[in-house]
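Revision sheet: structure tokens.
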Amino acid sequence: EDDFDFADIMINQSIHTIEFCLNSISNTASYLRLWALSLAHAQLSEVLWTMIFLPTLKMSGATQPVAIMCGFSVWFSLTFGILIGMEGLSAFLHALRLHWVEFNNKFYDGTGVKFEPFSFKAILDEAEE
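Predicted:
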């Protein structure tokens, strides 16, 4: 005897539809966060160029070569330090997004099986019994 309950199926499908919509919004927001980091990277690079190095090119006189060298080294150090840090953050966030948002939504199934780390001692204890 097959117990077909239309109400159960409707509730189950409604829950799956809501879950799908929430996952779509979550995935979109996650990619937007990565996009915002890349925009911040581009803008910060432009600001550092405009405010640090460009004024040294507009200088005149005997101190201009020294100012250009100092300005370039400050610009390069800040650009390298800050932007490499931002790229590291971007890579970290992307890996975190892939693990938590995509992997857990598609493949993870919490079955309630307790994790037991590998242990030679546990294997030897079982062999002795």
